[in-house]
Amino acid sequence: MNINNPQSVALPDQRQQRTYQSDFSKSPHTRAKPKPPVEEAITSWFSNLPPDLVEQTTSIITHLLSTAPKRWIVYPPMLLLPSGSFEDEQWRRLQLGGQELDSLWEKILELVGKREGKGKLTHLAINNGIPLLKVGEDKGENLLRNPTGLRILYGDFGPSLDHEAVPSREDLEKAFWVSTKQNGIIQIWAPRYTMFSRGNIKEKARILNFHKTEQQRRSRDASELMEDTAVDLYAGIGYFVFSYVKMGIGRVIGFELNPWSVEGLKRGALANGFSIQIVKSGQSWVPGEETITIFEEDNAEAPRRLSEQSPSFLASIRHINCGLLPSSQGSWEIALGLLTTTGWLHLHENVGVNDIELRRGTIRNELTRILSAKDVEVDVEHVELVKTFAPDVYHCVYDVYINRQ
């Protein structure tokens, strides 16, 4: 892998979650830094426990404090603690009732809220990873990327529902929704039912500025972009859909199976002032003046749905995003069928650090094989290293330029 060539591979920036560390200045005239708020909350909570629980906890309080989470993410009014928080065996052995635990969670929310300065925090959960397989007897693939690993500690996150069931309008209204703003774009989701990928912020910004960077030698100007269409085959809550809109593309089409994600995308679009149409599976589609159209159905329907329009509509497609991990390869043939003119595929893959360049060649060969046309140029012109997915494994985006000569 050639990481010295900025046109070849872009390394991710080292963004970190906020971390507090207990420390004391060496100078006797300097005040010590405040304790991390979760540690301070545990100390305060411990001092107010009933005597029998204090006796049970005294011998291990130092250990409990040492294992307290020192980083977190806040999406007001929700606080998310990292995976593994409060799962140490000593915590498990404590015989605490709901009231004692609630008092601890309330204290954590109070003190972290004060430290962050983002208003009152009312919901607390542990943010475990999104499982690739379904939970329960059915071990099939978690196609909807449901956050079934979320461990709720405090607050009403909405009714407990079957993640596979289609939610009613009442279900959607009763759910707990949060929002954040990244790159000036609002995104909205329901944490109990929908994943949110915080680490994609850099890739969202890159797509947003795709035609403004010096590395993009095939840039399109604002008037051209207004005539273009982008397609996101895994739209989610609008991670990249909104970036394409802000880029200046005139129409963005998305496909998404998860109704909770579609609802979040709709709410996010309206919050950003974008016009949107939602087309349910089986419904007919009549394009209007809206900027965003989302099909709540399998992206296998994309060729049929989009080919129903005029040939000039298909010819307007210039960007296709294939954002499924660990590999988007299952959608490559669909994407190539939609890209009837010159344009870009953005292929998301998890790749071992030593295999990044090898994967580049594999992608080029596979796309060339699918196209089986001599008059088409396939150029994997850029590899973006978005973030580490696991030790020595990167979430990569391969920008593939398809030139139909």
UniProtKB/TrEMBL annotation:
InterPro entries: MeTrfase_TRM5/TYW2 (IPR030382), SAM-dependent_MTases_sf (IPR029063), tRNA_wybutosine_synth_prot_2 (IPR026274). The keyword Methyltransferase applies. Residues 17-27 have a biased composition (Polar residues). Residues 109-404 form the SAM-dependent methyltransferase TRM5/TYW2-type domain. One of its GO terms (biological process) is wybutosine biosynthetic process. SUPFAM superfamilies: S-adenosyl-L-methionine-dependent methyltransferases (SSF53335). It catalyses: 4-demethylwyosine(37) in tRNA(Phe) + S-adenosyl-L-methionine = 4-demethyl-7-[(3S)-3-amino-3-carboxypropyl]wyosine(37) in tRNA(Phe) + S-methyl-5'-thioadenosine + H(+). Pathway: tRNA modification; wybutosine-tRNA(Phe) biosynthesis. It is found in: Cytoplasm. Coiled coil: none annotated. Residues 1-37 are annotated as: Disordered. One of its GO terms (molecular function) is tRNA methyltransferase activity. Gene3D superfamilies: Vaccinia Virus protein VP39. GO terms for cellular component: cytoplasm. Keywords: Cytoplasm, Methyltransferase, S-adenosyl-L-methionine, Transferase, tRNA processing. S-adenosyl-L-methionine-dependent transferase that acts as a component of the wybutosine biosynthesis pathway. Wybutosine is a hyper modified guanosine with a tricyclic base found at the 3'-position adjacent to the anticodon of eukaryotic phenylalanine tRNA. Belongs to the class I-like SAM-binding methyltransferase superfamily. TRM5/TYW2 family. This is tRNA wybutosine-synthesizing protein 2. It comes from Glarea lozoyensis (strain ATCC 20868 / MF5171). The lineage of its organism: Eukaryota, Fungi, Dikarya, Ascomycota, Pezizomycotina.
